[in-house]
Amino acid sequence: MNILIMFFALLMLVCASAGATDGEALAKQRACLGCHSVQHQGISYPPAFERVAEKHKDDPEQIKHSIRYGKGKMPAHPTLTDAEIVILTNWILGLELKK
């Protein structure tokens, strides 16, 4: 089993046991879904989260970095905690695994 998948599975268990909210609820709460869609439908900007997961499935640090510091037209999100960024990243990457 891929070490990254094992790491994120363990991290998701730790976050869940700490009472963290799920990624989709957090994405709604933090207005991520105001710009991004979840499912990919043709060419879209900003990219749908499924597209982000597909593109960065082997590089979760890039997703975390983009969330924290912004990328292109996406603004930085300095008020998100490290735990929230992990939850969002895991949720986004989980979309790729469900395909």
Task: Characterise the protein shown here.
With 99 residues, this protein is mainly α. The protein has one domain (3-98): Cytochrome c-like domain (Cytochrome Bc1 Complex, Chain D, domain 2), CATH 1.10.760.10. 58% of the residues lie in helices and 0% in strands. The chain contains five helices and no strands. It has helices at residues 3-17, 23-29, 49-56, 60-69, 82-98. Helix 1 packs across helix 5, helix 3 (49-56) packs across helix 5 (82-98) and helix 4 (60-69) packs across helix 5 (82-98). The longest helix is centred in the C-terminal third of the chain and has 17 residues, at 82-98. It is globular. Residues 13-20 have low confidence and may be disordered.
Fold topology:
Elements: H1 3-17, H2 23-29, H3 49-56, H4 60-69, H5 82-98
By CATH, the topology is Cytochrome Bc1 Complex, Chain D, domain 2
In helices, the fraction of residues equals: 55-70%
- Reading the helices and strands in chain order gives HHHHH
CATH architecture: Orthogonal Bundle
* Percent of residues in beta strands: under 5%
Cα gyration radius (Å): 13 Å
Please sum up the structure shown.
By secondary structure, the protein is mainly alpha-helical. It has helices at 3-17, 23-29, 49-56, 60-69, 82-98.
List keywords for this structure.
99 residues; Cytochrome Bc1 Complex, Chain D, domain 2; globular; mainly alpha; 58% helix
